Queue: 2 jobs
Job 1
Amino acid sequence: MLLKPDADISPLGYKSIQGWGGSSLYFKFSVKAASLSEVFQDTVALKDFQPEFVIPWSTAASGWWDPETHSLLGGETPLSEDRWLYVGAVDQGDGTFLVYALWWET
């Protein structure tokens, strides 16, 4: 997920889905950080993040996966011809972020 090794994360949910022409990993976590640059490696295009970002295929992982209930700051990072990382985050206002990450590959 291109997380920095020292990121202080607390996992809140994880799901792997294989099939339908590809593979996907859904990961929800909270992280103690002043900014997302403390959380993700430089490969993640944080400078291109936009408000009101919508993570695609949000209904594929149900229950704990609920990004549609939040106003997310986020974006898509193409990693190769057949791999993408979608990240959406909410600043909780207490020194933590709630983060949704979807890794998708064909």
Job 2
Amino acid sequence: MTGIVVVIAGAQLCQNSSVNIKAIAGIMFLSGLDNAEAQQEIMRRATDVVLSAKHPPSQFACDVILDSYGPNGKTAKNLLIPK
């Protein structure tokens, strides 16, 4: 669940990427997180991350998130789509 939260929060904080909804939905289904309760918890946690950010992330931080979860992601591929 943590990776999904990072992806959603990263896309909200960084303007250089957006969430790949189909990929996230597939992961949530395969992980058993495709119910309303789990979805609400994920969005609550992502919102908490966004609200706790005291400053907008640097371009470097946004590039690291995209490098981790983008098309050639080192953590997981194709969860973020570059803009």
